[in-house]
Each structure stands twice: as structure tokens, then as C-alpha cells.
Amino acid sequence: MIIHMILRILGLLLSLNTALATASTATERQIGRDFARQLFQSASLSTDPVLLGALSRLTLPLIQASEWRDEPLFIVLIDNPQLNAFAAPGGVIGVHTGLFLAAQRSDEVASVLAHEIAHLTQRHFNRRQQDGQRLQAAYLAGTLVALAAGLGGDPTLGTATLSATQAATIDQVLAFSRAHEREADQLGLELLDRAGHTPGAMVSMFQRMQDQQRLSAQPLPYLSTHPISVERIADTRARAGAPSSEADDAEYAYWLARLSGQGVESIASNPRVAYQQRIDAAMQSENWQSAIDTATDARYSFPNDLAIGFWQAQAMHRLARTADALVVLEGLAEHHTGLAQPYAWARDMARTANWTPEFNFYAGMTAVRQGDTDEAQRFFTAASAQRGPIAARAKAELRTLELNHSRQ
After folding, report:
1. Shortest CA distance to 326 belongs to which of 334, 316, 335, 336?
2. Which residue of 244, 289, 378, 391 shows the fewest CB atoms closer than 10 Å?
3. Is 116 a known active-site residue?
4. Mind listing the domains of the chain with CATH numbers?
């Protein structure tokens, strides 16, 4: 399946080669939707509400601190232990669960995200094309194919692909790539500071990656497309100051425990994690009312927490309060604007309740968040043909799709 995905992405990039040289915002949006759709169709994704919520909470403040405005955003968490993260034109941010395993603090994960967001806001993909058009097209295609190869857990394939494409344009491309990496590092440090993170976390994360590379028998996928040098670390340290503190991060420890499948023996001192653990325990014991009551209390302090809201909605659904559950999930979707999963959960709830209009509507909303506008149109059309208040909402979404299409 991953090979088919690589071929589709390569075909997409080659067909858009000319357009990218003078890419408009609409063109980049189309690239983002197509790339996101392929990820959702082909990659193995994590739907853990704690980890997805953590990724969204780290990403959105960085986006808000950046120049990214009123553009689609696709945040994808890939279930893969390899250390990797990437950005693609049109607002796609992909992260392997291996990034969480490689880091030791949430600030370090945020530093990688800030770097990728900087690539997006500075339109490095487009600028690379403008500086080399045909030569750079081969490199751009190879870079994204290498990223896709890494999704399948085959860093050797990704590295070989990248090496082959680099060989033709080694001097020009690598020099330009280093300039973009420096620019992304510099802006990433600024984004970290604006979003309330420790800029020095980028230094400690770079050092951690370099140490892991020395111990690894194969190249780390992330370093295949984002090479780290001694000079780059030194330059980042000079700008950021001291590396981040190694103090305990209770919330991060909980994320790692979920990734490893290990249980947590006691309730954490961190208030958010303590609530999450209690609600999760109630869900595991099928004590639905207790889960609802605890989640209701928790949402006074953490109203947009993805895991707390999801478990509350799940418990409501179990007690035949599906309408209330859907309201909760819609609120989560409105806040976590880059995630498709809240709408996917709503879609699945509507299916199990045999609520056909709602199923079609939320399936359409899920498709929009996954970049599949054709599928979204199909589901919205089905929902708009049925009775009930959901039909009017589906018609409004159809008009939005048509308006966006007319602007391209």
C-alpha cells in the first residue's frame, strides 16, 4: 500500500510541477488537500484521544503565533515509531508517534513543530521551485516521496530515493536547503517564544536527534530531509540560549505511558492528567455516569481537552444521549481545527445510532478535514436530500465547497 501511495504522490507532484513554479495560494491548497487525502487513505494513523489532543494543543498556539491565516490545516498523527515529522504545501503537518518517543519534554516536540510550521509560512516548497524549476522539481518530488517512504517504516527506501534525486543537483539544492533550514530554525525559535515555550528546547532536541543518529544502524527519516550539523546546533544555541531544562514533565510521562502501553500506577499530580486518568478508568469499568460526572467537572478547567471531551461524549452515547454527545464532539471539532477525528467520532456515533442524515453530514465534515472534497460533496448531497435540521447545514456546506471551487 505504501508503494502505491508513493506513486500517487509522485504523479501528483509531477503533474503540478509547472503550476508550482508560480504557485498561487489556491494551487498550494489543492496540493495540501491531495497530500492529506493520500495520508488518510494510506498511512497507519493514531486515534488515541490523549496523543491527538496533545499534538493539537502543541500545534495550534504555534500556528496562531505565526503568519498562517485563514488557511486549511491538516494535522496528522501517524502510528510509526520512527522519529519523523514533516510539512507539505497547503497546510499539512504530519508527525510520527516516534517523535514523542524520541523527545523527553513537550517543549522539544513543540520545537520540531515550530520548525515545520516555519517551512509552511515561508513557502519553502514554492521558493525551492522558483529557484530551480525543473532541477528543483526532481528534488521536491524526491523529498516528499522520501517522506512517504518513511511512513511505511522503511527509512532505507526513503534515504535511497532522496540520495538519487539529490545526486543530480547536489551543489545548488543542498546550499539552498541549508539556507531554508537556517531560516526555519530562526523563525521556529521565535514561534516557540511567542507560544510560551522554551526556545532552548530546539537545541536539546537537535542534540537528542544527533545522539540517536550515532546509535542508529540506519539513517533517521527526519534527518534525511532535515540534516543537522554541528554548525546548525551551534547557531541555534547562540540564538536560543541554554537547552531546555530536564525537569520532570508529568503530562509528557503520561503520553509516553500510553504510547508504550504501560499502565500508570497512581493518579498524577498534574490536574489535566489526573482528570484524564480518572475518566479513562471509569470508561474502562463501563461506569458511564461516573465518567460523565468527572468529565463535566474537568471541562470547567479544561473545556477543550480532546480526550476529556471524547470520553464524555462516548459515555453519553452509551447512555442513549447521542444528541448531547454530538454537541460535545462538534465543540471539539470547532476548537481543534486541524483534526479530522472529532468529526470521525461523530460520524461513527451517528452510524451506530442509525441516524442516517447525521451520519451523512458528519461523514462529509470528516472528508473535508481529510482533504477529500469529492467525498464530502457526495455525503453532503445525501444529507441535504433528507429531512431534518441537518439538511440545511449540509446545503450550507455544499455552497461553501462550490464557492471554494469557483475561487480556484
Report:
1. 316
2. 289
3. yes
4. 2-240 (no CATH), 263-406 (1.25.40.10)
